[in-house]
TrEMBL record:
<feature type="domain" description="Fatty acid desaturase">
    <location>
        <begin position="74"/>
        <end position="342"/>
    </location>
</feature>
<feature type="transmembrane region" description="Helical">
    <location>
        <begin position="223"/>
        <end position="244"/>
    </location>
</feature>
<dbReference type="InterPro" id="IPR005804">
    <property type="entry name" value="FA_desaturase_dom"/>
</dbReference>
<protein>
    <recommendedName>
        <fullName>Fatty acid desaturase domain-containing protein</fullName>
    </recommendedName>
</protein>
<keyword id="KW-1133">Transmembrane helix</keyword>
<keyword id="KW-0472">Membrane</keyword>
<dbReference type="GO" id="GO:0006629">
    <property type="term" value="P:lipid metabolic process"/>
</dbReference>
<dbReference type="GO" id="GO:0016020">
    <property type="term" value="C:membrane"/>
</dbReference>
<dbReference type="GO" id="GO:0016717">
    <property type="term" value="F:oxidoreductase activity, acting on paired donors, with oxidation of a pair of donors resulting in the reduction of molecular oxygen to two molecules of water"/>
</dbReference>
<dbReference type="InterPro" id="IPR012171">
    <property type="entry name" value="Fatty_acid_desaturase"/>
</dbReference>
<dbReference type="Pfam" id="PF00487">
    <property type="entry name" value="FA_desaturase"/>
</dbReference>
<feature type="transmembrane region" description="Helical">
    <location>
        <begin position="58"/>
        <end position="86"/>
    </location>
</feature>
<feature type="transmembrane region" description="Helical">
    <location>
        <begin position="165"/>
        <end position="185"/>
    </location>
</feature>
<keyword id="KW-0812">Transmembrane</keyword>
Amino acid sequence: MNTTPRNRALSAEELDAFAAELDALRARTVATIGQADADYIRAVFAAVRYLGFAGRALLMLAAIAGAFYTPVLWIAGTLGVLSLALSKILENMELGHNVIHGQFDWMNDPAFNGQAYEWDIAGTSDNWRKTHNFRHHTWTNVRGMDDDIGYGLLRIFPEQRWRPFYLAQPLVAVVFAVLFEWGIAIQDLRLGRWFAGKTRARDVLREFRPVGRKMGRQVLKDYVFFPLLAGPFFLTVLVGNAVANVLRNLWTWLIIFCGHFTADAETFPRESVRNESRGAWYLRQLRGSSNIAGGRLLNLLSGNLSHQIEHHFFPDVPANRYAAMAVEVRAICARYGQHYNTGSLPRQFGQVLWRILRHALPSRAKAAADTPGAGLAVTR
């Protein structure tokens, strides 16, 4: 892999100017937010409901009619799984994630309130607001502060200390992808600290209670209630729901990993955020993020996290605006000599796979400067 730094070091004055341009872009965009954005998110909400209803109806048809006529089982079952999976993907990525970020609080509509929305996933939105909205977006890719670096399971960057456990991480990564919603659900419990004896079991249990209740509701909904509606033909619905959830988990894992763990993504030491300026914060977000080029359909299905750079810059701006903002963001980065990390989904995913395989093995971390604005060394 090419390890030549691709970013120009910026002075304090340049960092301030860099931040000012990005802040101005945000202000111009926010000033134009209005009815079109409200119509958009309501259309997504409707699509989630209709696709979900269609998917469950088709699975019910496959279960009952398919028991007597096999082609119905395969055709209706396949369409039902795909429709339900698409509903769950849209709800998770474009609706839930963005609403929970507060992107649509300005609508004053309880259905799109970021502090009240509860999504169709095993984890609670309260935990997500803590681990993702605050911890990850504040300390993006800062080692020891951002738990999303490997999620406590994977060694993605050479700066992470190697342990023999990581030899199994190619398999661990597959299991994590399949069960992604469950891994995210327990992320804030920090079970590694409990295993190391740094946290008491009763404290972990107290933190787990709301998570356990949410998990229970999800299990009852997808694996008990809806399957039982099919009576003696419940197994088809049960399997269909499970496959739809796994498809959603795999897609979510793919998009998130491609947005953070490509070859050009960097991590930073704790010291880099001491007295961090606004410009240095922007620069850290840029260097720790990866975009995915793919067009409108990919933007929609990824919750516009195909524009991860713009999302890390402007997490509370409606994500449907990121594609337009990206044109200006890329131009601003070019003016300041900063690499704008983007590539096709196969290209970015290939780099993620390389990281997972390469860093399962021992490697030595390269020395890095402490300050992003001073030209942090690129490590891959």
